[in-house]
Amino acid sequence: MAKSVSSKSIMSAQAIVNKADGLVKQREHFEQNEYARSNKRLYEILAEVLAMYEQAITSKTLLTETIKQMKLNLEVCKVRVQTNTLALTLFVRYVFRTDRQRSMNYSRTLQAALQQGISAGQLAQFIEDCGGVEQCKKRFTKSSKVVVKETMIANTMTLVEETLADAIAKPLATFKVPNKFVAQTYDKDFVFVIGKADKQGNIKALGAVPAYSAGMTKWAKQQMALFLSQQQAQAKKDGNAKQKDAALTAAKSAAKNKTPTETVGELLAA
Description:
By secondary structure, the protein is mostly helical. The chain folds into 2 domains: 7-141 and 262-269, no CATH class; 144-253, no CATH class. The protein has helices at residues 7-34, 40-56, 60-76, 87-96, 100-115, 120-130, 133-137, 144-169, 214-239, 246-253, 264-269; strands at 193-197, 203-208. Strands 1-2 form a two-stranded antiparallel ribbon. The radius of gyration is 21 Å and the shape is globular.
């Protein structure tokens, strides 16, 4: 059964999205009429984006619902959203509807501000003091939590590939679906299967997804890498209680870091 979302969360998320839609119009006016004359307005728009994000993250349910609505609206406009996109970056992209590199630059500017405890109300002055967006984004450094996560994925990806290769020869299960469900995916790297699990580890295969996504494949492998890495760390901890895993220690120490780490895929998969 799909996780229910309260009408209050849906309405609150819709209010944020409506505000973002209004900001899109302001951004268009700025780019068409003010861009060449004033960076100040750009900073103000970025501050309003940050304010919406600050409002959304007061509740994970609200953030997830807002991301869901923004993603759907962008897809209607033929703007592709990858699952590994940061939620904060999606807010930026929603308002600016621009290329990924420019969205990333703006997102890193906001992340740099958050790392230094800068609120939406202080952002415009912060960017001004930094010397502009280009200089401001250079202040952004990945949190130790993000670095640990990326390192864990990179170090375990070979094991993921080997595990998947072995599983092809010795699958957990094999079952038949109508040919039409795999007509577009049988020759791809993988086929996505929708299932329902219970806490005992029993999985009911509900069907095959009749489409393929390279982004989802990458995300799935990354999640497998994190899981296998965590399993290895736990085994190491069990084998030697006195030995501490450096990566997990770094992640724990970064727990209070304000750098946003939620991705679209993680939020929508929750």
